[in-house]
TrEMBL record:
Keyword Transmembrane helix set for record: yes
Name of protein: CbtA family protein
Statement: the UniProt record of this protein carries the keyword Transmembrane: yes
Database matches in Pfam families: CbtA (PF09490)
Length: 277
């Protein structure tokens, strides 16, 4: 090979996730903020129309009950229609979700970066692959497992007196999701040295086993009225799932993109052209 001809590029190797914890936190906060705003945008255009429809049904039912009470008590000297206005209007609620999801994205981004800082010591995955994997694991544990056991309900569904019990059950389902993801990772690492497909099958099987066992042990909750439109119910639930999926997908991909950009800008240029002396 002539001396003045550049050497062929070496095959690219997986670059581990680098940077200090502070750097990762800043990266996670930026990715989380972007993810939260994107999720709020999906919620505004996809979820809010379903919420409006559910509120209209709730108000119609309340008006029907009010009319029934008025006809049953003609001699009463008071009215049941003097209800307090909500503290925040519907317009305020719709735009307030950008603030709420933006702050949630920041919080999830900080947690994401902290987990990535810990996980990079126990894996040989590259930085972007690790970020995408953590995003998928977070979505599975915090969104998917709770959703398929206790799916979200619109405002007109649910007994207000059981809200504390339902909140505790949702927290229990999140803990179940975290345990299922942990079991999947443990099974995958336990089979180190085996074929990748074997390790993946073992991880998926462990995840499914723990999830199924938890679903059997956790009690069911069904407070949907028989006259509530099933199409609106599932449209709301799918919209809710779309918002959370957008948040975690954007968080994982955003962190991965920022990581790859940081790795490219910090990698020195190789393959300098040799010249003849």
């Amino acid at each position: 090979m002539p001396l003045n001809q550049p050497a062929p590029p070496a095959p690219s190797a997986a670059v581990p996730l680098g940077g200090s914890l502070k750097t990762l936190l800043l990266r996670g906060l930026l990715a989380g903020l972007i993810a939260g705003l994107l999720a709020a945008t999906v919620g505004y255009f996809v979820g809010e129309p379903k919420v409006d429809a559910a509120i209209a049904i709730e108000e119609a039912n309340a008006a029907a009950q009010e009319s029934h009470h008025a006809s049953a008590e003609p001699a009463s000297g008071h009215s049941h229609g003097d209800e307090e206005e909500p503290l925040i209007s519907r317009s305020g609620q719709k735009f307030g979700q950008f603030l709420a999801l933006g702050l949630s994205g920041l919080a999830f981004g900080a947690i994401f970066a902290s987990v990535a800082h810990f996980a990079r010591r126990h894996t040989d995955l590259s930085g972007p692959k690790l970020a995408i994997g953590l995003g998928l694991a977070g979505w599975a544990a915090i969104v998917a497992v709770p959703f398929f056991k206790y799916p979200a309900n619109p405002p007109a569904v649910g007994d207000p007196e059981t809200i504390n019990d339902r909140t505790l059950l949702w927290v229990a389902s999140v803990l179940l999701g975290l345990a299922a993801v942990g079991a999947a990772v443990y099974a995958y690492k336990l089979l180190r040295g085996q074929l990748d497909t074997v390790r993946l099958i073992a991880g998926v099987a462990a995840f499914a086993l723990i999830t199924a066992l938890g679903y059997v042990l956790l009690p069911g909750v069904d407070e949907v009225a028989a006259d509530f439109p099933p199409s609106l119910l599932w449209q709301f639930r799918i919209a809710s799932l779309a918002v959370s999926a957008t948040l975690w997908a954007a968080l994982g991909l955003g962190f991965a993109a920022l990581t790859e950009f940081a790795q490219r800008t910090s990698t020195p240029v190789r393959g300098a052209v040799a010249t003849a002396g």
